[in-house]
Design a protein that fits this description.
Blueprint (H helix, E strand, L loop, with lengths): L1 H11 L19 H12 L6 H7 L10 H4 L7 H4 L3 H12 L4 H4 L1
């Protein structure tokens, strides 16, 4: 449990780096809360949801991995890759220093 809370806090404070994913792309679990709920139901069935107990002690988890976090933005072939609207939006975001462009999509 402590490892999940630690990694969540490190990701939210950008200690791990913005581009690092906490969860596998193929995983069905995409948030720290889901990991804690899964551990809670698998290991502590009688205890109930551990997230509510942690929140009572002031321990909160926030990180949710969205599909844009998993997107491969690298460009290998200009002719092909620049036809991708998501990559173009990321390029505009980087050039304009406006980090809100992809969050709108």
């Amino acid at each position: 449990l402590l490892l999940v809370v630690f990694l969540d806090a490190a990701k939210e404070k950008r200690i791990l780096g913005k581009d690092q994913c906490l969860f596998n792309k193929s995983s069905s679990v995409k948030s720290s809360r889901e990991v804690l709920e899964s551990i809670s139901t698998d290991c502590m069935g009688v205890e109930g949801l551990i997230v509510k107990h942690l929140e009572r002690y002031g321990i909160f988890v926030y990180h949710v991995q969205n599909p844009l976090d998993e997107y491969e933005f690298s460009i290998d072939n200009l002719a092909v890759d620049l036809k991708d609207g998501v990559r173009l939006a990321k390029m505009i975001e980087l050039l304009s220093h406006n980090s809100a462009i992809l969050s709108v999509l």
